Amino acid sequence: MNKDTHLAVLIDGDNIPASHVKQMMEEISRYGNPTIKRIYGDWTKPQLAKWKQVLLENAINPVQQYSYTSGKNATDSAMIIDAMDILYSGDVDGFCLVSSDSDFTKLATRLREAGKQVIGIGEKKTPEPFIVACDRFIYLEILQQPEKSSRSNNRSTKKSNVEKLTPKVVKQIANTITDVADDDGWAFLGDVGSLLQKKQPNFDSRNYGFQKLTPLISSIDKFAVEQRKQDGSNHKLIFVKVKE
C-alpha cells in the first residue's frame, strides 16, 4: 500500500481500549490515507465515556449501536453491515479492522475475496483465525508507549511486550530466504519481508524488539547480511543469505 491508498478504518469500541489510539492511527497512516474512520458501540454506556476526547482528537466518527439483547453483540453486526456498504460503494482501496474478536474473521475473508487489502489491529489475545484472515495483523501492544512513571516500570512494560526469537521463527525466516534466493543463496530483503508477511500476517520485527527486519536478521548468527550499492545511485540494497 502507499499514501494514495484510501482506507476505511472500522473500530470495535466494545473490544478495544481507548488508550493508545493516537499511536494506532499513526501506524495506520503508514499504509494509506484513512478517509473513513468510524467506531461502533453503545455510547449510552458509562464505560465508553473515556472515548469522547480520543474521538475528537483523532476525528473518528462514533456510530451508536444499542444493545438490544443481553449477551448479543450488536456492535459486530453494525460494523459488518457498514463494511459491506463501504465495499459496494467502491470508495476505498482497503480496510483496517480494529478488534480482537474472531467474529470478524468471515468479514476479513470476504473483503479480501473482493480484492481489498485488509489490515487487522488487535491485542495479542486475538484468535488465530482472524489474524490469518487479514493481509497484515498488527498487535496493539507493540504500538504502546510506556508511561513515564519510572525506568523500572518502562523496562518491565517493554519486556512484557517483546516475544522471544524461537527456533521456529528462525526456521521460518530461513525457509523464506531460501524460497526467494538466487542460485548463490542471496535474497533481496524486501522480497523476504513481503513473503514473510504473506506466510504469517502477524509477523512484525517489533514483536521481537526490533524496529526493522534488517537488525532482526543481523542479530541471528545463522544469517549473513550484505549491502549492495545500486548502479548510478547512492542507495544501497540489503541482501541476506542462510549461512552454510
Give me the secondary-structure topology.
Elements: E1 6-12, H1 21-28, E2 33-41, H2 51-58, E3 61-64, H3 74-89, E4 94-98, H4 105-113, E5 117-122, H5 128-133, E6 136-139, H6 151-161, H7 167-180, E7 186-188, H8 189-199, H9 213-218, E8 223-229, E9 236-242
Parallel strand pairs: 1-2, 1-4, 2-3, 4-5, 5-6
Antiparallel strand pairs: 7-9, 8-9
Walk me through what this model shows.
It is a single chain. The chain has helices at residues 21-28, 51-58, 74-89, 105-113, 128-133, 151-161, 167-180, 189-199, 213-218, and strands at residues 6-12, 33-41, 61-64, 94-98, 117-122, 136-139, 186-188, 223-229, 236-242. Helix content is 36%, strand content 21%. The chain has a six-stranded parallel β-sheet, sandwiched between helices. Strands 7-9-8 form a three-stranded antiparallel β-sheet. The chain starts with 5 loop residues before the first strand and ends with a strand. The chain folds into two domains: 6-143, Rossmann fold (3-Layer(aba) Sandwich), CATH 3.40.50.1010; 167-242, Nucleotidyltransferase, domain 5, CATH 3.30.420. Strand 1 (6-12), helix 1 and strand 2 form a beta-alpha-beta unit. The chain contains nine helices and nine strands.
